[in-house]
Amino acid sequence: MAEPSSDPRDQESARRANPLEVARKTWGAWLRLSPFFRSSRLAIVVLAGLSLVAGLVESGLIALIATVAASLATGSRDVQADLGPIALDAPLPTVLTVGVAMAVVRGCLSILLAYIPARVGAQAMADLRRKLFDAFVGAAWEIKASERDGQFQSLMNAHISIVSQAIITLGNGVSIFVTFVTLVVSAFLLNLPAAVALAVASLLLFAGLRPLARRLRDQARKLSAENIEYSKGVQEVVLMAEETQVFGASPTYRETFYRLVDRVRAPLLRSRFLAEAVPALFQSVALLLLVLALIVISLMDVGNLASLGAVVLILIRALSFGQQVQSVATSMDEKIPFMERLADALGQYSGHPQQDGDQDLPPVRRLSLVSVDFAYPTGPQVLHDVTFTVERGETIGIAGPSGSGKSSVVQILLRLRDPSDGALLVNDVDARSFRRDQWQRRIAYVPQTAQLVWGTVADNIRFYRPELTDAQIVDAARKANLHDEVMSWPEGYDTVVGQRAAAVSGGQRQRICLARALAGDPEVLILDEATSALDVRSENLVHQSLEALKGRITLFMVSHRISALATCDRVMVIENGRLQAFAPPADLAATNTFYRDITRVPGV
Ligand SMILES: Nc1ncnc2c1ncn2[C@@H]1O[C@H](COP(=O)(O)OP(=O)(O)OP(=O)(O)O)[C@@H](O)[C@H]1O
């Protein structure tokens, strides 16, 4: 059994009992989401107009059928009837021809009424996926970094797919509702008592089934929350696959995953059951109410036979539409939480865009951190009053114990995060004032966990700069000391590699990422333990390559290895979030305890 959700909207929904709530909440969710997809409002207006025409054609056709049937019963070849505002008097063949024409028009309208919602739904799915992708890509790094694993995947797949279905359901709902109202109004015009009986019956039905529909919505909300937990669990299975292969899947690991599976099962069962049961129940109750309505009509003076027949037929048809309105309401109940969650996420991403400056970025001559304090949104301060200046072309080592703040400094240099206090300066000007897109083209980065995409070696090197020529790719691979190895593979640069491809070793993967970083001829390059997976020979080769870039590129190298740090012009030592020393390696060996200690560790 799923645990009660902590989402305040769940608790709120348990208290509400307004029968118009579905329409109100659908309207609210629609208003929040529809700006994210194109031409939807116009399509809904067209749909409502066509549905009105369809309803009128349908009630006219039903009245015509009833009238013809009544004439045939009396053996007359002329059709004469008094149908509310319309008095009909025409030969049978003419009336039948009109009837055929009306049936064809109704058929064509049905096709249009099915097509428009499907088109809006498919377009909305594509538009929402683009918008969510753009909002996610453009959101500040803090927002993405603080998100639960699996959330974006779930929004992109399950949520958007359900929202697209909801839009189709909503379109159908508008069409069905307008047709339903048109039929009811037609019935009023034909015969007032019968129409009153019909309206009362429909209202009773709608009110009677509300509590069940509310339960359905609550279960659907739980399902949405549990689906996100499940997606997160699935992602962890993939992330941990290698370790699980080595250590084995413990019973606790299995049980934790099984629990996630079970927690989806319970709300899924309830919401699926209720989604089927509510319309079925409606049908049974509708039939009962129809019989009661007929009894009421039979006790009244209903005028001529044609009018009675038309009213009864319209009544049956309208009740069928009433039932469909109820189905749409229950189906929307199920989908509204997904719409709300998607709207929340879109608001969250687009409400926290990456901050950008408007000044053009000149060539980077100098980079400085001035009195930088920094804390992650959820934690204590991790950097304290960090100040340093680096000139163009310098090779800078960043060293310090684990957790001391090296990667945090890197994140500030990359402009992924802004200092809580103090500033990153480029050529003595606050980096925030420069255009981010220009900064992104001048800086390159190789993270601790180098990621490859599924594709060829060339695709991977070209990933961020699709415009690169083959010659530039080869040049970048040479700089990363990758070229000769790639050429020894049968497929060369067309060899397919990927996150799990056995084709490349950890060291090769890191050099592909290094080649990708060097491919854009960056002015600043940051390597966060990027050579840690390389053997000594490969590392030396890469360092020779980096050495060749000296003076032309400003290089930051986070490393625990003295072999890497010793090649730097200067090394900064960060301990407990403070810059303890910043000097050439030879000086540090004499003055800094941490640096001296790592020079003494054998093999480092
Ligand atoms: N996303 C985060 N949210 C909250 N705290 C974080 C986050 N990332 C790092 N920290 C904390 O900030 C501190 C500095 O971490 P940082 O990653 O900068 O250290 P590091 O020197 O690079 O460590 P390592 O050498 O192990 O990679 C640590 O105490 C860490 O727990």
Automatic annotation (TrEMBL):
<comment type="similarity">
    <text>Belongs to the ABC transporter superfamily. Lipid exporter (TC 3.A.1.106) family.</text>
</comment>
<dbReference type="GO" id="GO:0005524">
    <property type="term" value="F:ATP binding"/>
</dbReference>
<dbReference type="InterPro" id="IPR017871">
    <property type="entry name" value="ABC_transporter-like_CS"/>
</dbReference>
<feature type="domain" description="ABC transporter">
    <location>
        <begin position="367"/>
        <end position="601"/>
    </location>
</feature>
<keyword id="KW-0547">Nucleotide-binding</keyword>
<feature type="transmembrane region" description="Helical">
    <location>
        <begin position="195"/>
        <end position="213"/>
    </location>
</feature>
<dbReference type="InterPro" id="IPR036640">
    <property type="entry name" value="ABC1_TM_sf"/>
</dbReference>
<dbReference type="Pfam" id="PF00005">
    <property type="entry name" value="ABC_tran"/>
</dbReference>
<keyword id="KW-0472">Membrane</keyword>
<feature type="transmembrane region" description="Helical">
    <location>
        <begin position="166"/>
        <end position="189"/>
    </location>
</feature>
<keyword id="KW-1003">Cell membrane</keyword>
<keyword id="KW-1133">Transmembrane helix</keyword>
<feature type="transmembrane region" description="Helical">
    <location>
        <begin position="42"/>
        <end position="72"/>
    </location>
</feature>
<protein>
    <submittedName>
        <fullName>ATP-binding cassette subfamily B protein</fullName>
    </submittedName>
</protein>
<dbReference type="Pfam" id="PF00664">
    <property type="entry name" value="ABC_membrane"/>
</dbReference>
<feature type="transmembrane region" description="Helical">
    <location>
        <begin position="273"/>
        <end position="299"/>
    </location>
</feature>
<dbReference type="InterPro" id="IPR011527">
    <property type="entry name" value="ABC1_TM_dom"/>
</dbReference>
<dbReference type="InterPro" id="IPR003593">
    <property type="entry name" value="AAA+_ATPase"/>
</dbReference>
<keyword id="KW-0813">Transport</keyword>
<dbReference type="InterPro" id="IPR039421">
    <property type="entry name" value="Type_1_exporter"/>
</dbReference>
<dbReference type="GO" id="GO:0016887">
    <property type="term" value="F:ATP hydrolysis activity"/>
</dbReference>
<feature type="domain" description="ABC transmembrane type-1">
    <location>
        <begin position="45"/>
        <end position="334"/>
    </location>
</feature>
<dbReference type="GO" id="GO:0034040">
    <property type="term" value="F:ATPase-coupled lipid transmembrane transporter activity"/>
</dbReference>
<feature type="transmembrane region" description="Helical">
    <location>
        <begin position="92"/>
        <end position="116"/>
    </location>
</feature>
<dbReference type="InterPro" id="IPR027417">
    <property type="entry name" value="P-loop_NTPase"/>
</dbReference>
<dbReference type="GO" id="GO:0005886">
    <property type="term" value="C:plasma membrane"/>
</dbReference>
<keyword id="KW-0812">Transmembrane</keyword>
<dbReference type="InterPro" id="IPR003439">
    <property type="entry name" value="ABC_transporter-like_ATP-bd"/>
</dbReference>
<keyword id="KW-0067">ATP-binding</keyword>
<dbReference type="GO" id="GO:0140359">
    <property type="term" value="F:ABC-type transporter activity"/>
</dbReference>
